[in-house]
Automatic annotation (TrEMBL):
Component of the proteasome complex. The keyword rRNA-binding does not apply. It is found in: Cytoplasm; Nucleus. This is Proteasome subunit beta.
Length: 208
């Protein structure tokens, strides 16, 4: 068994029209043994940027605090909020520093940035456990249900989805994919990020 599958869990991020969405399941397990149904894997970085951390649960907690520290240091030094692409490279370099004894986490990032002309630019990215970045224009997935998430997302995702349609798409993708994976599930947390607000919803899932 891979150490990446020890605690289970999956995350997906999707791009819409001037919005992005990121979702995670809520299960924490010890292999097939369920421990908690309230283990969130998505954390806010700024008001318009979120990071999902699927993988080994102890490293989730460690990296959450490490990223919070490094983002706060950046904000103090630069006197501005960190941009999504800058944060992606911060994540990449943080993981690559530990490449010979890596954190067993595959981060997924989703956020929006505003260009100088006022245009909203959606941003999603993911990395592997040593920080190799993967930028995408449609969706990125990580975790134990990633192969199922890919399959369902390929069938459901469309370009330029409005926020409510994006919420419906990512929710259906997550709920259907984790039903086919023994290590993920037990509910879903979804964040839809637009230029005006962040919509947060908790969905009930199968508990078996």
């Amino acid at each position: 068994m891979s150490i990446m599958e020890y605690n289970g869990g999956s995350v997906i991020a999707m791009v819409g029209k001037e919005c992005v969405a990121i979702a995670c399941d809520l299960r924490l397990g010890n292999q097939a043994l369920g421990i908690s149904s309230k283990f969130e894997k998505i954390f806010p970085v700024t008001d318009k940027l979120y990071v999902g951390l699927p993988g080994l649960a102890t490293d989730v907690t460690t990296l959450k605090e490490l990223f919070r520290y490094r983002v706060n240091m950046y904000t103090i030094k630069e006197e501005r909020e960190i941009e999504p692409d800058t944060f992606a490279h911060l994540v990449s370099s943080t993981l690559y520093e530990r490449r010979f004894g890596p954190y067993f986490i595959e981060p997924v990032m989703a956020g929006i940035s505003t260009t100088p002309g006022g245009k909203v630019k959606p941003f999603i990215a993911a990395t592997d456990l040593i920080g190799c970045l993967n930028f995408a224009k449609d969706f990125v997935v990580a975790g134990t249900a990633s192969s199922k998430l890919f399959g369902v997302a390929e069938g459901l995702w469309e370009p330029d989805l409005e926020p409510e349609d994006l919420f419906e798409t990512i929710s259906q993708t997550m709920l259907n994919a984790v039903d086919r994976d023994a290590y993920s599930g037990w509910g879903t947390m979804v964040y839809v990020i637009t230029k005006d607000k962040v919509i947060q919803r908790t969905l009930k899932g199968r508990m078996d």
